[in-house]
Each structure stands twice: as structure tokens, then as C-alpha cells.
Amino acid sequence: MSLTKSAPSYATFKQEKQSLLSPAALSTDDGRDQALHPQANASWLSRATLSWVTPFIQLGNDRTLVEADMWPLQEKHKAHVTSREVHSHYKETKSVIRTFLRSFGWRFTLNGLALLVATSCTLCGPIVLNHVVSSLSSAQYDLSSLLKWIFALFAAEVLQALANNYVSFDMEMMVIEFTGALKSLLYTKALRLNAASRKLKSTGVITSHYTTDCMYILAASYVIHKLWVIPLQIVAVSVLLYRLIGAASIAGVFVVIIVLSGNHFFASRIQSLYGVYTKIKDARMKRLTEVFKAITIVKFNAWEDRMAARIEDARKAEIANIWSYLRLSLSNTVLTWGMPLFISVVSFGVYVGVIQRELTPAVVFISLALFQLIQMPLKQVSTMASTVVRAKVSIERIGAFLEMDELTVDNVLRTSAGLEDTNAISIRDATFSWDDTTKQLEGVNLEIQRGELVVVHGSVGCGKSSLCAAMLGEMTKQAGRVVVSGDVAYCSQQPWIQNLTLRDNILFGHPFDAAKYERVLSACALHTDLAALPAGDQTEIGERGVNLSGGQKARIALARACYTDADVYILDAPLASVDAIVQNEIFTKCLLGLLRHKTIVLVTHNPEIIESEYVTRAVTITPDRHVVETRKKSSSKAA
């Protein structure tokens, strides 16, 4: 396939412009041609000036850009590549900062050196201005010498622009790659947390790590080099000022020291307040999340005012902390922005009043130019300090999260569904707990053979969901052995619904098979619901399925599990929120029909299902959390 077919718009533009900066073509394994990123073949001059992107900008000027005009990412910039590298380095270092340096250390160092070069070039302006003003103030001046100085200034400006371009582009790429990989690391960790860790970290707190903390780290990455470049710039400017106005510059430096000391004081206080703020915010988010998760109970008990008061108390504490934070930030900003004025007044006052020297045009213009040179960096100090402080706190929070206890890999031994072993689930002399202290289930012995339908029942809170979690490896196994054979599908007691179409919720990323899909819909009694929805199975069911009833959510979650075609199904009360007629239909069509050859562990309170002749055995969990198995007379499911 030609490049014109794979990216016709860009190829046509390439032929019209005949640009050497346009992307080439790469033949993939399946015979398709793929446009290369133009930076891959760009010359060093094109990379330095970023001119390789010019054809794309011109194309956007000629017409509206479409998706086919975009270049594919270079392999080294793809998320899975950087994530794999960052994951590997974090396993070795167990430190977010050391992981960053291991992954991007050389690029980070080169960016710092390039920024130092760009900052050094800014000093050429006052130096050239000094020679020009001094020459023009004299009776005779050398024109050729002036032209040389002006050309040197031009060269310095060009070099500064090139260095700034390099820093801006490469730093942007680097921090985006790192934050993307860091989010991957956080997501992986969130999936591996054990039950004890999940109790300490609510969904809202984990979300804040993924969004707010990563955003603060991203913001700090852009300014981190300036924290050491700006002091060097201030020192260089101070030296030039001393050579120009002598001891009067010492007074200016003294003002700088006073202001920077004030900045340091305010920054330390801001850091302390921000650390308190994050804890208060986490507490508020935890309370808010708890209320939303238990909103039905809150409504039934008319606890709205009480819960609102708890949230409001946390919010008031948060607002009080924010006000203190803003007052300190305002004081720090006023001190920093007033620094250039303080320096000018004190320096010129000492120069005229104490040293009693005359203020010539050269002294005034060059001094003002030098003061102007450090004005913006000094104004940025407080903002950068606050940004880095927030990032430091965020790194500590993320580091603490990444060090939390994970699920033990050997909680469950997983094997393939071979024929040599007839057991689908085997639990022998096992003791389980949600943490390392309290035992939830003790002395569990349970053998479930392939193709069996096993019912688990017991009083409320006795540990039925805990037994399901133990089979999944979600609980801490303190003793014994658990073996699960084959792929496992799990349907939780609280249905999980994605903010997608109903069909996408059921498919869950699997390929669409029309016949299989219809069988699943029929088995889960969803045809009537689809007919009532405005767009059928293409209806967007919203965040957490808010426009669905509890029974509809449960049946969609069950349909998702059925569509995976797993070997073992662990179903935690999926029929609890549907009426008796629908329960009977799902039990007959789904459990005894669609899944008749599968291994099923069903948690239920329905006595008709528990006593059904098609149930292979019933497992009772006693109030003292012991598992008692009762074998039934019949051991076969209906066809």
C-alpha cells in the first residue's frame, strides 16, 4: 500500500511542497505502510530550529486538519515503552525521584545545561549596552568595534533562542512521558492493594494521587532547573553590578538576602500548611465518598443533615487552612515582586548619598538593565518555590502509596483447566483474614469439582463475600492452600457499571459475537430492558449506571461475566436485587442453561435455590465464621 493511501492528505501536501522534512514510509509486518514521524529523519539543523514541523503548520493553515494528518508516535515515546522502563527502575530503587533520574537522567542533565547556556546569553545584553553607551558618550568611537559587539549580541540572541527551544520541547516531551508512566505505576498499584491497604486509601484519595499529585509533579518538572540556574544568574548580575556601581551593589545584595530569607521562611510555612491541607482534604473526600457509597442507608434513616454537617465541618477546616495558605502566599508574592524596586532604591541611594558618586547615563541605563534582568527571575522564585514544595509533598504521598502492602501472589495457586485434576477449586486447611491480625475464616476445607453448582448461604455478615474474596486471592491467606483451575469470572455484590454503552459494558473489550451476545442477553433476561431503552444496547448508561435500576445493573454485571466464557464463575448475590419471577428465569436460563457446563459458586439467600435439586451442594457459613459443607442428593445440572 502506498503512502498516499495510508495518509492521503499529508502525502498530497508533501508532493505539492516537495519538502525534505516530510515523513517517510515504513512498511509494517502486515504489509501496510505507516508514516514515520518527521523528527526521526530530520537533520540536526531541522531539530535545532524545529523546522521539521513547518509543513504540518502550513498544512493546517491551508485547510482543517484531520486525524489522518497526524504522525504516529515514535516508538520511544509510546506509553507502554516508557511505562515498562519506569516500572523496572522503580522495582530497583523504590523511589520516585531516583526512578526519574534512572529513566531520564541524561536528558534531564542536558536540559539543565541548555537552560544554563540560554541564561548566560541574557547577560550579553547589558555587557553590549555598556560598551555601546560608553563609546557613544566619548568624543570618538570605533564603528567597527561597535558592529562587532552588536553582532555578538545577535549571535547570543540566536543561541539563546535555540537553547530555549530545545529545553521547552524536550522537557515537555520528557515530563509527559514520565507522568504518563507514573500514572501507569499508580494504576497498577491500585489494582494490587490488599484489603487492609484499601481501607486506608479511599477511591477519592487514590484519584487525587492520579490527578492532583501528578499535576503538581508535572508543573514542578518545568521549573526545577531554574531553582539552581536563577541563583547563578543573580550572582553573575551582582558581580556586574559591583563592577559598575561598586560598594552600592552590596546594599542591593543585602536586600536580596533579606527578601530571599523571607521567601524561605514563607516557603517553609507554606509547605507545612500544604501538608496539613492534603490530610484535611483527604479526610473530607473520605467522608464524602462514604456518604455517596451509603446514600441509600443515609436516605432511609433521614441522616442527610447529620452527614451534611460532618462534611461541612471538614470543609470549614479545609477552608480555614486554605485562607492561611493564601495569606502566606500573598505575603511572599508582595515581598518578591517588590524586590527589584527595593534593590534599585537602596543601591542608587547608597551610590549617590553614601559613596557620593554621580549618576551618569551609562550607570543608570546599565544598572536598570541589570536590575531588569533579575526582576522576572526574582518574581518567579516564590511561585517556583511553592510549586516545588507542592511537588515534594505529592512525591512523598505517591511514594507512601506505592509502598503500601499488596496482595500476596501465592494467596491462590492458579493452574490451567487441564483434565488431570477434576477439582476446579480446592481449599485445604486454610485461614483467611483481611489484615494480619483478625481471622475472618478459619479452618476452611472445600473441594469443588468441575461443572458443579455450589450454593453458599448464611446469615448477614457471616463471611459469604469473604469466602468469594478468598477464592479470588483478595484476602490474606494466613495458612493452608488454595488452588483454582482455569479462568475465573467474578460478579460482585455491588454491580460495577462503566460509563459506556450497555453493549460495551457487556463486551468489556472482547470481540463482538452476535450469536453469543444474543444468548447472553436471553439468559440474563435483558431483552425486555433493551426494548425500553431509547437506543437499545447502544444507550449510554452513564457514570456508575445512574440511570439504571439495581436489578438492571446486577443483570448487566452478570451478562458481562457470562460473555467472558470463563471456566469458573464466582457470583456474589447477583439475584438479590431482582424479583422472584426474574430470579427464576435467570436461574433456569443462565445458571442451568448457558453455564450448565461451568463451575459455579453462587451466594444467595433464596431458599428455593438453596433447596433446588439441581444444586450440587450447599455450603453454610456459621455465625462463628466456619464453613460447613452439605452434599445434596442430586449432583447434576439441567441440560
Automatic annotation (TrEMBL):
Residue ranges of domain ABC transmembrane type-1 in the record: 113-390
Subcellular location: Vacuole membrane
Main location: membrane
CDD domains attached to this UniProt entry: ABC_6TM_ABCC_D1 (cd18579), ABCC_MRP_domain1 (cd03250)
Transmembrane in keyword set: yes
Transmembrane stretches, start-end: 108-129, 149-167, 240-260, 334-353
Top-level taxon in the UniProt lineage: Eukaryota
Topology versus the membrane: Multi-pass membrane protein
Name of this chain's protein: Uncharacterized protein
Species annotation: Pythium insidiosum (Pythiosis disease agent)
